[in-house]
Specification:
single chain; alpha+beta; ten-stranded mixed β-sheet; five-stranded mixed β-sheet; 32 helices; 42% helix
Length: 891
């Protein structure tokens, strides 16, 4: 489905509006089978029995109205009428052909537009084309306020207690977790309303003096059964017995002041009944010791992002089963039993975000099952049968481990209240009993089957869904302990030292699921695991275990409301044992079917792209630039060059323009000292040059690097010389991921290019067209490595592997014309740098158009039929790459 083409078709449809054919043309625009639409045209009122109403089973109920009718009333009545859903229409559409109203009966989204604006809203009906738009809840503003307020309290306590030891910080963290429980408890019915905050306000001094003694006594009370409280003051005995170990351990409390007491009371006055327990992950980032979680490579995960993981992993399937069971009590009972036995396992659970949301979503689904049973005249147990004991986690940080258990308790209370509101029956929350099986261990060094057994004592396999956001950590960020983990988990993976730390989790997960169809996993990862060299090293080993990727979210920004927001570029990858069941890719929240999902998260075969020393296609050689290893002393700024020439005009003979990636993209003028062997004696007679060369010699002698030491005796030369006196194409190594195109460029002869760029000498212009095209960029984004989030362009992995067909002389000439058009547009802006010209928000329209024309020309070289999107381009490229590799091997 080509979005641009679809939008244009809808605009044409509304410009040439026909009451008689509108719905048929609308369905055709979304590529419903022509035979289906033709049959509907012949008998439009067959299912509806109404001349103004057309029904296509499972697709649409369409009703035309007159100008006098109120479409809003019509569509409201349709939604209330049970007969409307007899044929399960995905969309309800009502229009008087001026205004169009629509309802998505699955997602409950609505559309209320002028019919002439239909083209702008083309995504609304994409499910007709098999492209589901992912729906996710928004963040809760109350969570943000609570996190912010708790952070202020934490900062105040630290300010008042500057000499806290590391153990004291742990005690402070435990204290804060207890505060969180008490705030939540007094607003949600676990305690009497306002009991905790009012008790602090009434029974402690405004100055903060003595508040530590108050908390000591209160925590003792909360850990003491009602029958054993005779020694406590009366105002403490109003608090109930909590149990669960939450208040069992004695801790050293900090010193409190008037400010910290005030902030505690202000926190207590927030509406904690509106807080999601999953916000505790954000609380940790907001309030614990700075750097603690960053050192573990963890990031707080927001609710919408968690839903992106658990919906395609298991939740969508369960809701589909509910839809197919809602009129059958036996099926409903079986589904409820299935849900009660599902196990959720997070082997890097942090504060329990994934476990909490999974628990709540399963409980909500269970409530819908009970509701469906009631609708057909059957009664089910009216409270949740989903047990916290079905939720498993591994967490290396002891504080986060405790918070995970606490958060699950609070989530359970929320769901008890939820069921009470729906069905009038509530399980008692206190004393706390079930707690979730959360193990405080290093997940890389523990047997996951011991934590969450795959088979029970009856030798029956469990239905297990593994979820999570394990620590990423690129190989340069890994500490000695984490490198040891990699050694223990990945010794059979050749080249594992180059992998991200999260590879340990994927590998252990693949081993865990490889023997069972009843276990599936979905992890959040940085996109580097599915790009560049990592993809070729790691994923073939996973696929060897009879494991496949069955769904994936391609790269997107992973953002949340936590303090120090992670904001990294991530992917979501779901794994299962190889199966013939459907697979799905999510691109920009649109869900599309896939025949296979490969290591690069593309709809293609499991081909991997490995480094090459020579181009696969008929392309010229791309070289590295030259390397100086000079400590910067062979380099000159514009001012230094001018000073050299002013002092000795002869020095100009030994200075050349110098242009690497940064110099080219940002238009920075730099130069270098460049001396041939035959000119070395004459050059060293110039004092400025001689002084520089003496410093270079000392630098190289101290380097300790073999090759650099060897060149200490020729300090006037670069250590690695690849310079040619010829014009060339320069290819920046690093380019921002936000740019639609890497800004390649032409440079004249006589410019020295360092190894911070790649270079193609004496290139024909059409080569520039090939590598600056969208097609090449799609390939680069898939296979290139990354420097943080920026693209790391490599000759061996991006250029040499690029599959490009053989072309005719006429095609070369056509591409050359497009090259000159692009260069002409660039020249219209002489004062702008390449960084400015290719900034996606500032790119001139003329330059955009010139690139689009080139893109079309390149696309047509691959095939005459237009590509629908970048995903189809990438699938085509992988297929061609595989064919070319096979052909090369067979030659």
């Amino acid at each position: 489905m080509n979005p641009v083409e679809l939008q244009e078709n809808l605009e044409d449809l509304t410009e040439n509006l026909s009451r008689e054919t509108f719905i048929f043309e609308l369905l055709t625009a979304y590529r419903l089978p022509k035979s289906t639409v033709s049959l509907l045209k012949k008998s439009p009122s067959k299912l509806s029995g109404n001349n103004n109403q057309i029904i296509l089973k499972n697709k649409v109920l369409f009703q035309a109205t007159t100008i006098e009718e109120d479409e809003h009333i019509v569509i409201d009545n349709l939604q209330k009428d049970k007969n409307t859903f007899r044929y399960n229409p995905r969309f309800l559409i009502v229009t008087d052909f001026q205004t169009l109203l629509a309802v998505d009966t699955k997602t409950k989204e609505t559309l209320d537009i002028k019919i002439n604006d239909l083209g702008r809203y083309y995504t609304f009906f994409l499910p007709w084309a098999g492209m589901e738009k992912a729906q996710h809840v928004n963040e809760n503003p109350a969570d943000i306020r609570a996190a912010s307020k708790m952070a202020k309290l934490y900062d105040q306590i630290i300010k008042d207690n500057p000499n806290h030891t590391e153990n004291g910080l742990y005690d402070l963290n435990v204290f804060l977790s207890r505060l969180l429980f008490c705030f939540f408890a007094e607003d949600t019915g676990i305690f009497k309303k306002g009991l905790f905050t009012n008790s602090i306000d009434s029974n402690t001094q405004i100055s903060g003096d003595g508040i530590g003694d108050y908390f000591d006594s209160l925590f003792d009370v909360l850990n003491t059964k009602d029958t054993e409280r005779s020694s406590f003051a009366h105002h403490f005995t109003e608090f109930p017995y909590v149990n669960g170990g939450l208040f069992e351990k004695k801790i050293k409390l900090p010193i409190f002041t008037a400010n910290s007491r005030r902030l505690i009371i202000e926190c207590g006055k927030l509406g904690w009944d509106a807080i999601n327990p999953d916000i505790f992950g954000s609380m940790i980032q907001a309030v614990v010791h700075p750097g603690q979680r960053e050192n573990l490579g963890m990031h707080y995960t927001s609710v919408p992002n968690i839903m992106k993981v658990i919906e395609p992993l298991f939740l969508n399937d369960l809701y589909d089963e509910l839809e197919n069971s809602k009129d059958d009590i036996k099926k409903l009972t079986k589904l409820r039993e299935r849900i009660s036995k599902i196990k959720i396992f997070d082997p890097a659970c942090g504060s329990g975000n994934f476990l909490i949301i999974s628990y709540k979503e399963l409980s909500k689904l269970e409530s819908k099952i009970i509701g469906c049973a009631k609708d057909i005249g059957h009664q089910m147990m009216p409270y949740s049968g989903v047990s916290l004991n079905s939720f498993y986690g591994i967490e290396i940080d002891d504080f986060a481990h405790e918070i995970a258990r606490l958060s699950l308790w609070l989530a359970q209370h929320q769901m008890n209240t939820y069921f009470d509101d729906l069905f009038g029956m509530m399980k008692p929350t206190l004393p706390l009993k079930e707690s979730g099986i959360i193990v405080c261990k290093n997940a890389a060094r523990i047997d996951w089957n011991v934590v969450c057994p795959r088979i029970d004592y009856k030798n029956e396999k469990f239905e297990i869904y593994m979820v999570g956001n394990p620590p990423y950590l690129g190989f340069l960020q890994q500490k000695a302990e984490q490198k040891k983990d990699m050694d223990l988990v990945l010794p059979l993976v050749n080249g594992y030292r180059k992998l991200d730390y999260i590879s340990c989790w994927f590998y252990k997960a693949a081993e865990y699921i490889s023997e069972s169809f009843d276990i599936k996993i979905a992890f959040v990862s940085t996109n580097s695991t599915s790009q560049g060299e990592q993809a070729s090293i790691f994923w073939p080993e996973i696929f060897k275990m009879n494991v496949e990727i069955f769904f994936a979210y391609q790269s997107f920004k992973w953002q949340n409301n936590a303090k120090n927001n992670a904001g990294v570029t991530c992917v979501i990858i779901g794994l299962r044992k190889v199966s013939s069941k459907p697979k799905y890719l999510y691109v920009d929240n649109l869900k599309t079917s896939a025949t296979n999902i490969n290591a690069y998260l593309a709809n293609s075969s499991n081909v991997v792209v490995t480094k090459r020393t020579k181009p696969l296609s008929n392309l010229p050689t791309m070289d590295l630039g030259s390397a100086a290893y000079d400590g910067g002393y062979l380099m000159l700024t514009q001012e230094e060059r001018n000073a050299f020439i002013s002092n000795s005009p002869k020095s100009e003979d030994f200075i050349k323009p110098f242009m690497g990636s940064a110099e080219f993209i940002r238009n920075i003028k730099r130069y270098c000292i460049w001396i041939e062997d035959k000119d070395s004696v004459e050059a060293t007679k110039i004092p400025d040059i001689k002084n520089r060369l003496e410093i270079v010699k000392l630098f190289r002698e101290k380097s300790g690097r073999g090759k650099t030491l060897e060149t200490a005796e020729t300090p006037y030369k670069f250590t690695e010389i690849r310079y040619k006196k010829a014009p060339a194409i320069i290819a920046p190594i690093i380019s921002s991921e936000t740019r639609e195109y890497i800004p390649f460029g032409f440079i004249k002869e006589g410019i020295v290019v360092p190894n911070s760029a790649r270079i193609i000498y004496n290139s024909e212009p059409h080569i520039f067209a090939i590598i600056t095209s969208r097609m090449h960029m799609v390939w680069v984004r898939a296979v290139a490595g990354r420097l943080k989030t920026d693209i790391r362009y490599s000759g061996t992995i991006c250029y040499n592997t690029f599959p490009f067909p053989s072309i005719t002389l006429q095609q070369k000439e056509e591409l050359t014309g497009h090259v000159y058009n692009i260069l002409g547009e660039r020249e219209k802006y002489p004062n702008r740098t390449m960084a400015e010209l290719y900034d996606p928000d500032k790119m001139p329209d003329g330059l955009k158009v010139a690139h689009k024309y080139l893109d079309t020309a390149i696309d047509q070289i691959y095939r005459s039929k237009p590509f629908e999107n970048d995903e189809s381009r990438l699938s085509h490229l992988f297929k061609l790459y595989e064919e070319m590799i096979i052909n090369e091997t067979n030659q």
